[in-house]
Design brief:
Largest interface: A-B, 18 and 13 residues
Number of domains of chain A: 2
Largest sheet of chain A: 9 strands, mixed
Shape of chain B: elongated
Number of domains of chain B: 4
Largest sheet of chain B: 5 strands, antiparallel
CATH architecture of the largest domain in chain A: 3-Layer(aba) Sandwich
Structural class of chain B: alpha+beta
Shape of chain A: globular
CATH topology of the largest domain in chain A: D-Maltodextrin-Binding Protein, domain 2
Radius of gyration of chain A: 18 Å
Number of helices of chain B: 12
Number of helices of chain A: 7
CATH superfamily of the largest domain in chain A: Periplasmic binding protein-like II
Oligomer: heterodimer
Amino acid sequence: MFSLLAAPMALASDEERKLYLSTAFGPPISTADNRGFFDRLMQQACARIGYQVATDQPQAERALMLANSGVNDGDGPRVESLDNLWSYPNLVRVEEPLLDIDFVAFTCDPGLVVNDWKSLSGHNVAIVTGWKILERRLTYLSSLVKVKDVEHLLRLLKYGRTDVAIMDRYSGLDAAGRIGLEHCRIADPPLDSRTMYLYLNIRHVEVAGKLAEALRAMKQDGTYQHIFQEVLGHVDAQN
Amino acid sequence: MLTLRINFLNSAPTRYRTSNGLAPRLILYILLFSSVVTFFATALQLYFDYSRDVRAIDSRIAQVRDSYLKSMVLSLWSMDYEQLRSQLEGIQALPDMQYLEIELGGEPLLTVGSQQGQNLLRESYPLKHHYRDQGIYLGTLHVAASLDGVYERLRDRVLLIFGSQAIKTFLVTTFIFLIFQFFVTRHLQRISHHLRSRRFGLPPADSPPLTLNRKPSPPGQPDELDDVVTAFNEMYSRLTHSYEQLSESKDRLDLAMRGANDGLWDWNVDAGKAYYSPRWKHMLGYEDVELEDTMHTWFDRIHPDDFDRTTDALQQHLENHTHQFECAFRLLHKDGSYRWVLSRGQALWNRDGSPHRIVGTHVDITAQKEAEAALAQATRAYRQEQEQRLKAERLACVGELAASIAHEIRNPLASILNSLTLFTRGSLEGDDRDEVLQIVNQETYRLQRILNDFLLFARMRQSDIARHDVIAVLGDAVTSLRMSLPEDSPVQLSTRFHAERCLALFDRDQLCQIILNLGLNAAQAMPAGGTLTISTSTALGCVWISVTDTGCGIKEEMLDKVIKPFFTSRENGTGLGLPMVVRILTQHDTDLHIDSSAGKGTTMQFSLKLA
């Protein structure tokens, strides 16, 4: 287990009140220059409660471990209910959703029909390593390829090395634009849709409440929508 | 002539078996040595191979640490277990890598391979990732490399080495066997066959020298076998010569023994065996086969009275206390009588001084012993007769002496008797009476002198011979002689000594007596005067003393008589002077030499041993 003793302690001074957050999502949810949706949302929300924030993108499960162990202060966006929450007893949820995310199937085969999870049977399917929600759903597949990121996932699809690539809609569309993936489509309806939340280390339980209020306030004053439109609006328009 | 035909090897030929041959033993030793060398060389090589393989495994484990650990940490950080498994499987695919495990909190996260097996080299590496200035512990990589592959390769290598070595050794030893057979063994067999077939005493044509059946060596470049052949032929020549000498010597001995009619005996003390020649047995009346060749045959026949003496003499010689064994004793003859034999022998001793062998002869001296007994008996009879004769002569001599004494004292006694008769008649007057008394006095004195000389002669003491200076003693004797002569003696006394000092062995007083007697005799032989000379000289280890006078000399017919007792030509002489001188000189183991010429003088000479 990660050592709690190694976790940085929250400091009292304002200059040093900074939250280290991790996310399993890449662009456009979170980017290396902290200009993703999650990055900007957290920067705004935390600023409202007097915190600075820094985000990075470790591997999804590693991100949970880091937050649970206190190396990081929190992790998100995560689904509403972590199935293996008992493995992360040190996480508390910020009771205000960050966004809704659809898990969709990308395919370049026009004849391939993907209606639900069962329809993937008999096809070559690829997912990103660490997406537990997907791994559990696809255990029945005989051919499941796992790669390290969304971009890699779509390259498999681009070069015909998999029939279907499953990921969240925003990341898939953003990555498809970056690698120039054409003649592919997103199967409709989504395979799953989830409301995503932020989880903080238990030592920030008080911050979690403040942060939830800040998020709600941002939604009320339009700040949330403004950020969403700026970062995810063009992706949402490609759909 | 005894003819000897002795085999060069007296023992029965010993045939060797092929398995005992030199070549098989050579092969055996080569195999043994080669096996030992192979064993140790293989062990050394296996040790180095083992060390190298273990080092290689260590190197691979180090390679895992240096080359794989970083990427594995990244994979583990990103929870990419598929990649991590691939990496572990890639590591496991390395030679001898058996088991890899990533463990976290005591629980295995990923395992590849099996931990089964006992010969494992284990190593563990902590997996840490630096994140936000912290070293995040991600788990521990356990690596286990198996030595089974190493051992299996060693086994394969052992089999390969031993197999190849066995084939190589077989080929090499077979080649050596053939080479040894060709170059050595067959020649040794020929030499052996030649040695067995060789006989002494054969003509040279029937006894060719040893040669080998092979190409001759280059001149001046003989090899070992040539040297052996040359040495053998030279040895055979020397042995032939020695054999001839031995044969000749044996013939000579045999002839001598038969000519001397001696019996030969030979006792090997070490082996406890004995040998008696036929003649030895014939001496005791037996044929050759009738007596056993043991020492009991001899000792059981020794006369009981001679047994201890004989065995003592033999023991003394066997213990090297005497140079030769020699003893005469009696042996029991077959007919029950005893025969005298003279046994002589010479022993040989071992280095430790113990007797090894003694050889000798028996000579039948029965006849000699019988002759000796007869001679001893005759000698005893002769001695008895001689003693009786000497006793008679002695009695006659005593009678003669008694007669001489009676004769010598008869005249003085008669004169004394006549004088006393005249006195008893009372008819003597004046001067006649004095003259008769003077006659009685003179004759009485004469009787006294006769009796003194006789006593001196009869009771002569034994000489006390010691070392004295002859010249000094003679000087004293001459002085006594000079005082014994009348003052008006016309004799001129002179001495002529060869040296001032001369040591000799004699009785001092007796030498003075001799000089006095001889001097007085010489002086009395010169009543008209003359020269009496006492002189000395040395010759033949003696000092010669001469008493010379220039008197009337001794008639030749009187020379033998003058040394007899009571012979005298003088009126007042007793005739005991010269016999006394002769007896003294006899006790000095010397003689009196008399050289006399009538009318010219006499020289009396004797010698004394120089000291």
